[in-house]
Design goal:
Layout lengths: L7 H13 L4 E5 L1 H9 L9 E5 L10 H7 L4 H10 L5 E4 L3 H12 L11 E2 L9 E3 L9 H19 L6 E4 L10 H11 L5 E5 L11 E3 L2 H26 L5 H15 L1 H5 L1 E3 L6 E5 L5 H17 L1 H21 L1
Parallel strand pairs: 1-2, 3-10, 5-8, 6-7, 6-8
Antiparallel strand pairs: 4-5, 9-10
Length: 330
């Protein structure tokens, strides 16, 4: 029931995914409007789609912890409980990011050694195989948290992009070793002892080049990068539209707009990505997602399950932490 265009686009996306992907879908929400939307799609009754009833929706402006107490039967909490109980393999939501994170952290639980979940992904379209992590969940991070982000990013790049030994770097104000604030310098020491393929620092202007596979930063810096990239895309479209001012056809201009959005906002094009660090697959999508993006997010959830992403990440976190502990003791 979450998202700017729910339940119209979420149901349409579920129908699309059920038709084109080998998945069965549980639509969580108020049964009446969900059934009305299903009935609007010819042939939907023959698809593996069913409705799981819930009561209420957590809005974007609501405090997630309070909503968890006051609305325990809201759609995002019921959906996450279905994963916890094994009745569903993954949860996909276009609704409140905060509520989705709170539900996953509390109901599914955090992986050992992690305090909070994080978000990351290929947020610069010119570098579609570079994950930047974190992009807004944790604005103040300790070096140990950044080490965890590096491990998560490594497993993500390995599993989703099949990169054997992903190159890991820290986002800083200079590429030279030792450049950066205290957080970066202390994290560098941990990464050098981790056994990861740590290649040092990268700067902001390195991000579009795709020279590394994993870029690690706190959520403050990561969110600034993401919002700047998205904002440049929107502003560039307006700038070009004014500059050409009828010199190209509307069809060509729409094609240009689409390419710019894919380049500056790939997360919207992909539909969503996994919430990282929780004991289960929880996909967070864009609130303004349309049916195609919803279907893409469902496909991402299926891919994470097929790859055994959670199991692989749990194993890798334990392995790297053991290496770091041995190095620190020696």
């Amino acid at each position: 029931m979450g998202g700017d265009f729910a339940p119209v686009e979420t149901v349409a996306g579920a129908v699309l995914a059920a038709r084109e992907t080998d998945v069965a879908v549980l639509l969580v929400g108020d049964p009446n409007p969900l059934q009305e939307q299903l009935d609007a799609h010819p042939g939907a009754a023959d698809l593996p789609i069913s409705v799981a009833p819930s009561m209420g929706v957590v809005g974007e402006g609501e405090q997630p912890a309070r909503a968890l107490r006051q609305k325990p039967n809201a759609s995002i909490f019921v959906a996450t409980k279905l994963v916890k109980e094994g009745r569903a393999g993954a949860c996909v939501s276009m609704g409140s990011t905060g509520a989705t994170m709170a539900a996953a952290a509390v109901i599914l639980g955090m992986m050992e050694g992690l305090e909070r979940p994080c978000l990351g992904g290929p947020i610069v379209g010119l570098a579609p195989r570079t994950i930047i992590i974190d992009v807004g969940t944790n604005v103040d991070c300790k070096p140990a948290q950044l080490l965890s982000f590096a491990i998560i990013g490594e497993v993500f790049a390995n599993q989703f992009w099949h990169i054997d030994r992903p190159k890991v770097a820290l986002l800083s104000v200079g590429s030279e070793t030792g450049k950066g604030n205290k957080q970066v310098r202390e994290t560098t020491e941990l990464l050098q002892a981790s056994g990861l393929n740590f290649v040092g620092n990268v700067e902001g202007d390195d991000l579009p080049a795709g020279i590394v596979d994993v870029v690690v930063c706190d959520g403050f810096a990561g969110n600034v990068v993401m919002k700047l990239t998205e904002g440049i895309g929107v502003s560039l479209i307006e700038h070009l539209a004014n500059a050409v001012n009828g010199q190209v056809t509307p069809e060509a201009m729409n094609l240009i707009k689409g390419e710019i959005l894919k380049t500056t906002n790939p997360a919207q094009d992909l539909g969503g990505g996994p919430l990282l660090g929780v004991n289960g697959v929880s996909i967070i999508g864009h609130g303004r997602a349309d049916s195609v993006e919803v279907a893409n997010a469902i496909a991402t959830a299926k891919l994470a399950l097929d790859l055994g992403f959670i199991e692989r990440l749990t194993e890798r976190l334990a392995t790297v932490r053991a290496v770091v502990e041995i190095e620190s003791e020696s």
